[in-house]
Design goal:
The protein is of the alpha+beta class and 148 residues long. It is built from four helices and four strands, in the order αββββααα. It has a single domain, classed as Ubiquitin Conjugating Enzyme (Roll), CATH 3.10.110. It has a four-stranded antiparallel beta sheet with strand order 1-2-3-4. Helix 3 crosses helix 4. Its EC number is 2.3.2.23.
Length: 148
């Protein structure tokens, strides 16, 4: 099956001009499926963690957003226990002008600044709002336990 030129270009750019703290490598048997690793941003409770994600480009891409989810367990108000991500650019704010790298940068930014007011994991968001220090501690603990 041949890939659209756009996907080939985006994939090449991810390889030749990688984003700091992010790797995205397509599977050899399915070039629409990527293994992604995002390093937890400095100064966040996820610092130095290596988070594995999967990214899939549906046939309708770029008219529809890529499907992305965390495979590494993470304590975050916008990521549920199945690894699904609550992020506007993956849903209602998706635009064909966005690219794989833009999405991955947005996810990396979400690690730096979680948004407990738009949660996917409600109990984590409650903890984030009501006992911030404990939530940060739990996020650090999970990072050490699951993302090293």
């Amino acid at each position: 099956m041949s890939l659209p030129k756009r996907i080939i270009r985006e994939t090449e750019r991810l390889t030749t001009d990688p984003v700091a703290g992010i790797t995205a490598v397509p599977h050899s048997d399915n070039l629409r499926y990527f293994d992604v690793v995002i390093t937890g941003p400095e100064g966040s409770p996820y610092e130095n963690g290596k988070f594995k994600l999967e990214l899939f480009l549906p046939d309708e891409y770029p008219m529809v957003a890529p499907k992305v989810r965390f495979l590494t367990k993470i304590y975050h108000p916008n990521i549920d226990r199945l690894g699904r991500i609550c992020l506007d650019v993956l849903k209602n704010n998706w635009s064909p002008a966005l690219q794989i790298r833009t999405i991955l940068l947005s996810i990396q930014a979400l690690l730096s600044s979680p948004n407990p007011d738009d949660p996917l994991a409600n109990e984590v968001a409650e903890e984030w709002k009501n006992n911030h220090a404990h939530a940060i501690e739990t996020a650090r603990d999970w990072t050490a336990r699951y993302a090293k």
